[in-house]
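Practice problem: predict the structure.
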Amino acid sequence: MKRHKETQSRYRVTGCCCAALMFFQDLSGAHSSVEPATPQAGRIANLWWVMFYVSVAVLALVTAALIYAVFRRRSAREQTAPVDLSPNTNRERKATRAAAVALAVTIAILFVLLGLSFTTGRAVSFLSNESPLEIKAVGHRWWWEFQYVDPVPSRGFITANELRLPQGRQIVLTLTSNDVIHSFWAPNLMGKKDLIPGQESRLIFRPEKQGVFRGQCAEFCGFQHAQMGFLVLVESDGDFSDWYNHESQQAVQPSNDSEKRGRQVFLSSTCVMCHTIGGTPANSNIGPPLTHLASRTSIAAATLTNSRENLAKWVTDSQKIKPGNRMPPNVLGPENLDDLLNYLTSLK
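Answer:
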């Protein structure tokens, strides 16, 4: 019996240790507030850790007091002595002092956290004098539109669901929505900010760590809210310049007969009513632009990897993947579908 209890105790301790390890392991990654890639996210992470440690300390003290109250045993004399209900001035005075000290400490901690939150908020909103990269993010149900603003209008362009940024350069991200309230949240880069229809807000940050980070809509916006994600790719300045110059160009021309037939399938179907392909008559902005579709790493708002197989599934019946989205099923014959896929996968 004793050995069984010892075994149960070991299992409980092991379980608690594993749970704690999994908790701290899940804090890191491409969608984490405590693995910052910008100075602004670093300030937010520092505030988070302060609040975390304070909360752990308070929890430990309260738990210890509860355990003491539950397991404290009265002495044999106290158990046999008659209950004395007369006022005990000294005991009441000590209890009052203890409660006053606890209240004062609580208020002091709250004011310290309030001050830290205020200074963090001011720090992450600071705009330096350097020339920033200006991008406009527009939320749609359920995808993201990123407009790269250039002093030369012909070099500006629009992409979807993937935000590419140069390392070490200040970014000014203007936010708005095309339909309902959304919320831009890429915790490795910055805190979340709401996108409100008819209004503009902005985020200012400077990415200093290269990598791929995940963002997510953090405001419930409908049926496919959970699958309204996006990717942030932070690159070296040289790689970003190459990508930027390429994205500002029109779509590549078909290089063979199959791709030519695929372009014709696209232009003669309902696809042309919602999408844009630069250099073609397709010029609608209802859905994501497809000018350089093949250069993206994901499709369907970071729901699927950008592969030929996934693209075929999405084109023929996107409702099976994201029910409720605005793209209707497309009934295409095998040859037309193959030609269309050849054309779309050539748009790099």
